[in-house]
Fold:
Amino acid sequence: MLKLGVPSKGRLQADTFGWFAERGVVLERMSDGREYAGAVKGIDGVELVLLSAGEIPRELAAGRIHLGVTGLDLVAEYLSPADGVTEVARMGFGQADLIVAVPKIWIDVETMDDLDAAAAAFRAVHGQRLRVATKYHRLVREFFRDKGVADYQLVDSQGATEGTVKNRTAEAVADITSTGTTLEANHLKVLADGLILPSQATLFVSDRAKWPDGTDQTFRSLMKQI
Amino acid sequence: MSRAGAGLAALEAETERCMAAFAAAGAERVAPAVLQPAETLLDLYGEDIRARAFVVKDGLREAMLRPDFTVPVVERHMAGGAEPARYCYAGPVWRRQAAGSARATEFQQTGFELFDGRDRAAADAEVFALISALMEGLPVSVSTGDTGLLRAVVAGLETSTARKAALMRHIWRPARFSRLVARYSAPGSEKAELIAAAKAGRAEAVMAEAGKAVGLRSKAEILARVARLVEDADVPPLAAEDVALMDAVLGLKGSVVEAHRVLEGLAADAAALRPAVERFARRIEALATRGADVEALAFEGAFGRTTLEYYDGFVFGFFDPASPETPSIASGGRYDALTEALGRGRGIPAVGGIIRPEAVLALRGVPC
Structure:
């Protein structure tokens, strides 16, 4: 069987089901919506695997699923090209941008260069590096390096990241935003050149998965359909 | 992987060969811990060190597998070592490598560090000669540099202290440095509206309109930076000659003697460069006294600017000319700036060098 990993719940799952249905592949959950199991109609030989979106990159890299739907941001953060996970299709939903945001009151900071200058001054005043809260450690670190920002430190934040500035556990944040409402509500603004990665739901294929008899064929017919 | 038999014996013999030479030069052997406090390295190198060193977590505490010996050796010396002092060490270091890279994440280093501020040229030459002697007979190419030259040009720029400090801070980040130079070379400023408002005494009003005060960075800090932006807007652009001088220094290529000749010419019109060029001349003399062929010793103006953070004077590297992309076989340099950062302003003149015994054996075709 060709294993297709999709998010186990929420909007992302509903949109994924919708996207496949438009292409004649019907994904269904078992009648009791709590059981993490499902069925695939409209194509033979495909098995549905319901997983947390955050675990799908790892499962693809390990080759335990052949195909998987997850955010571009998660694959970019957790995997590297050496992990053999390749993009098949951007699905046009779940759009969100990974951005760098600072308090709106920072009228002197509009760009990453400004943030760097502010970080240098902050360190001189407070004796500690300027804190940036995020859960995307690798992407943020690489972005800051490319932009030449120094004197900052990353602090881990797995949720409610926009609140860290008010709570004084960070001075700036790097987080996913789709509408910007949460940033706005927390008195934050996005830096002009602070877009780290535009993300959306994406279908990936694992180069590491084994393709026993028939799965190859199933993959090709699925590709044709979608 | 693990080593045994002839390979292990060869590695131990090579390490011992280096350590014996270091000991003969008067070095005391030190053995720094494998686990180093993460905070020290993060404060020195910033978050980028996480991409280069392995982090070990114990609850909320973090340590790093030592990515080199220099930092712990400097710390040990600064905690009470008498001067002059010479130290040597040998053992594995650990470095994270880019995804898909074939470079080793664990490799041996054996090195020598010299703390002696009496005669920097002589100290530079001593370390270079010591490492150079251990490279004898190997098919290596050598290159040298001097990051002190660019620092001297920056220090002597006719511009504001703030601009010099910003350039100095990014001297080890060539791309960012070039962007700063480009910005400081152009007239005008980027935040014309904010600067106009601030000049009209409206900075606080603009801030009040912008949003609610949140976070640790205070209004006073924001206004202080606005004031710096206002000052910066009136700073004249960098002179074209000064930018050309930086390019000329970074573009130097040739033997150290040839480079010195060019530098003399440059320093004739740039007083700020003169002390650095004099130091350069004294070093050439000291190198020659130690037996280096200075007519042939290669010099590159940009050498040591990207990979050797905190080196701020003489730098050198020995490479396999057959594969210039692989890491150096041996390298070293002066790192007074690192001791200053670790000593919170109290610096100790220091220069050191390391050899990678596994790379030496690979060059000799000895499996290990």
About this structure: The longest strand of chain A covers residues 188-199. DSSP finds seven helices and twelve strands in chain A.
